[in-house]
Specification:
By secondary structure, the chain is α/β, with parallel strands linked by helices. It has a domain of 191 residues. Strands 13-12-11-10-14-15 form a six-stranded mixed sheet, with helices on both faces. The longest helix is centred in the N-terminal third of the chain and has 15 residues. The radius of gyration is 20 Å and the shape is globular.
Length: 343
Amino acid sequence: MIDLATPLLAIDVGRGTQDILVYEPGRPLENSIKLVLPSPTVVVAERIRQATRAGLPIFLDGFLMGGGANTGAIRKHLAGGFPVYAAPGAAATLHDDLERVRSMGVDIRDTPPEGAMTVRTTDYMEAELRMVFALFDVEYPRNVAVAVQDHGYSPHRSNRIHRFELMRERLDAGDWDLLSLAADPVLPDMTRMQAIREQAPGALVTDTGPVALIGALCDPRVREQAEEGIILVNAGNGHTLCFTLKGREIYGLFEHHTGALDQKSLQRYIQKLADGTLTSEEIFDDGGHGAAVRKPLDTDAVVVTGPNRFRLMPEAYQAAPFGDTMLSGCFGLMHLWKHFREG
């Protein structure tokens, strides 16, 4: 059972949703404040589409944030013949190489031109969340933990390769311990995470994929099975991350794009991971990030979490830490806060 000394705001930022938990000491987790809201990239995309419909130029201002829906909306805005301006920090949302951003047709500048609609870019929507909490007379917690997926700074090579190289380095440095995939403070290369730390200097900021699986282990059944060996899958909206795990030791892992997977292909990759035969090239050539295998794991225990769990793995055990199937990432952040800050 997790026992924190002071309230914690945990925010798990995904491609489709941002899942939010306010943990308060003394309150049962089942009665905690919980929100499942549109992801910041979805919110920003809609604001851009509003400008497109109105025929207005836009000025992106704020911080580097995750892409996805917002970058698609920007491209459509440009394709419609409407100008896009961006401050340097916000422009990095589109690509680490700002010259490539300029080649898209984005004018990078410090101030907005007259008549442009300003769209704020951020993964940490503090102002909006403070407004929501104030409406319900809820004090905004001082402790904040945020999870985002960061590919690391990679202006001139594949960010898929770079992200997985960083994960492999963390594993090797941490003797393949599950918690080695989380770092506090944030690694300098993780620019998306650094942008959140700039906005919330004391925050714990880490990666979405591992925290969801760490959170899944808060389910007593999952935790018990992990002692003998388990296959853990986080089927997110954007990415699917799979571990073979015994205790806290990772035997192997792979990361792929969820949209490129179906039940058959995912099961094939899982089997090869468990057998110890999966290669990083196989995943990368299929459009994913990569794989790393230390040794095979013989187990029939398979657990899945994440919003695409029923589509990809309807027969697997659906992790429900503290009775909740959507907030695994938030519970993982709680565990990491206790480990790093109160342990």
